[in-house]
User: Fold these one by one.
Assistant:
Number 1:
Amino acid sequence: MALLIKTAAELVDPALEARWTTRRVARETETLRAILRAFVERPDPIVVEEFIRAFPGQASADTRAALTRLDEDDLIQIRDGRVDLAYPFSATPTSFVVQLPGRGDRYVCCAIDALGVAPMLGQSVRIRSRCHHCGEPLELSADPFGPGPGTEGVMVWAGKRWDGEQRAWTST
Amino acid sequence: MRVWWEADPTMEGAGTPVSEAFKLGERVFGGLLKAQKP
């Protein structure tokens, strides 16, 4: 068996596509965007009760139910009353760090999530990780239109599972 | 990546250039918060 090298089109997983299509059309979209904006503003977990109070125009039960649905759909993770993960962001340390201009570092869930931040925000970012093979630090830039110069030799490993499992990348 | 993978060829998955991985990230997250102010 040989190492497979695939294009993005070959890697698209119908289940993943369905999940993110659902995300975009779900009635919770504004709730999810508010969570993502909170992670952009600061790296800390979001306290659910504080988040609910920040939506004065919406019944707290509705906001709570929206959060529960997002958690059940694996779009966020709520633990101990806090949102500690909202793809692409993670409040707990991971192997992938994205430096947001003017806002500092944020942990993200995997290499593909890291590369998705620039097009998500419409801003250039810096990404740091380590080669999964040799441990050598990797740093690259990405803007909303693609990865920056000097990334030609960088490869990303996409594991068979796509639902939040980390993906490695290497420089070899 | 090939050397890394050959150490455990039972790993299921595939490698992809970072430019292709970017396309996946863009597909998943592109434009979600584009109105975010810097």
Number 2:
Amino acid sequence: MEQFEKLYLYKRIVQAKLFIDHHYAEKIDLDNISDQACFSKFHFIRLFKTLYGRTPHNYLLKIRIERSKLLLSQGHCVFDVSQMSGFDSPTSFTAAFKKATGQAPSVFKERERVRQQDIRNNPFFVVPNCFAETHGWTKSQFLRDDV
Amino acid sequence: MITKLTHLCIYVLDQESAYDFYVNKLGFIVHTDAPMGEGVRWLTVSPPEQPELEISLFLVIEGDIFDKETVKTMTALVRKGTFGAAVFTCHDLMATYEELKTKGVVFKKAPTKEFYGYEALFVDDSGNWFSLSQLNP
């Protein structure tokens, strides 16, 4: 019986985690999330941390930062990314991003742009030669005279 | 002195499907996704808390190493579930098991108590199997 209760508990926490995964771009907070799991806020935070190694708030922030990194690397502007990732404002986004990654979103975006251009010009900057040879990829296939 | 493992190669049968499995189901982060011509990509992903490890989702395709016959053999072997590719760990196996099952990941072994902790086995979209473990504290 105890095992079934534990399993039921797990399912509720997992549902709450999936709720964060699906709704991170919306204005959700801890109350929304603990409501999903039908727990008191305190109990919920404790269980979530036990299962996932970080608090729900911390996890939500991590998901938003990871999403924003992907969007920035796809070329979206900082303002749009802050909206699309669920941050209150570009200011709060920039502050959170800088704290998490050590660099401003605009700097990250520019570095990603340069990195992707380098990869396009010469994938051998990132593909270990042993793997390239396995596929029959050669440097002359990608290297241009001007790079 | 060898210091670190930086790249790990997993043979997959479809890179688009593998991207969906590893990124959208397992929650891995895309490290590099570079087109290499003729529908082939250099696609590497990383476990969320190990961003320095690149797992290359390597397409089984005819090239310098794999001839046509080898591709056929490898495809059959991967699909058959011959290859156990790696061991992943998580904070809580039951929670991760429930989550991945909800997302449609197929398990060939439910969480089971082992000497070192708990272990489950899941299969990727190509047929490779992995151990998912929660180690004893």
